[in-house]
Amino acid sequence: MVFSTKGIVLHRFKYSDAKTIVKIYTEEFGMQSYLIYGASSKKAKQILSILQPLFLVDLQVYHNEKKELQKIKDISNSYPFKTIPFDIYKNSIALFLSEFLMKVLNERDGDNKDLFSFLFKAVKTFDTENENFVNFHIIVLFMITELLGISPNNNFSEGKNIFDLTAGKFITGIPIHKNYLNVKQSEVFYKLFSYNLDNFQELKINNSERRVLLDTLTKFYTIHLGKPGNLQTLKVLQEIF
Looking at the structure, do residues 205 and 227 belong to the same domain, yes or no? Predict the structure, then answer.
């Protein structure tokens, strides 16, 4: 049976000389793996040209819940990018977000329509922002904690100024484990509660603070979801920003 769905392309890799597997986060089925045949054919090359990190696509797919690899009947570009593939800095962020989302999201997230809608909108926003986009990925990772049910508690105060990653909240004093931020780092982390897709451009942090926030969010996800774990694109991103 053929189904129509929107999707966000996250990753692709060569399965054999004639086959390619593509990871796409879909609106209807969550994270799915699709098998592309005849990688060297003209039609396959046209398909692969839009199967790039964070590309937004419209899909017609054959879906069988009993199979791990699904098939694509037809695919088209839902939103032609204006900047992301052509800007080295934006492309680096796109590669990081693609890897992060690929490791964090799963098939069950097909029931989370709010999450898909947010990410679809976020990618469009990222593509249209021409200047202050260096913190975009940080705001996205922070915002989707709520949509995944692991959002940190917004309880920062003068007395509770240490962020405990394990507890997911600000606490008084240093915990007995190592998963916490010091006071200065906690103050920077607290800033994230004030930003969203409409004003992320206004977040003012330096490179050192940006690295701390990215490390913190990655660790926070790993503690509460058991993933993403090691990210190949993280080091590259931190070298650029």
Answer: yes
Supply the pLDDT for residue 219. Answer: 97
Q: Are residues 89 and 59 part of one domain?
A: no
* Side chain identity at residue 194, one-letter code: S
DSSP state of 153: P
Closest CA to 107 of 207, 40, 25, 171: 25
Number of Cβ within 10 Å of residue 101's Cβ equals: 24
The answer on 124 and 94 residing in a single domain is: yes
Going by their DSSP bridges, the two strands 69-77 and 30-37 should be labelled as parallel
Maximum Cα–Cα distance across the chain: 64
DSSP assignment letter at 225? H
- How many angstroms separate the CA atoms of 95 and 230, rounded? 14
CA–CA dist 71, 114 (Å, integer) = 25
CA–CA separation, 19 and 134 (whole Å):
36
Which of 129, 140, 146, 138 has the alpha carbon at shortest distance from 8? 140
Spatial separation of the C-alpha atoms in residues 236 and 233, rounded to whole Å? 5
- Please compute, for residue 229, the number of CA atoms within 13 A of its CA located in the half-sphere on the CB side: 5
Mean pLDDT value of segment 81-91: 95
Q: Is residue 19 scored above 70 in pLDDT?
A: yes
- Are 136 and 89 in contact by the 8 Å Cβ rule? The answer is no
**Average pLDDT of the residues of the chain:** 93
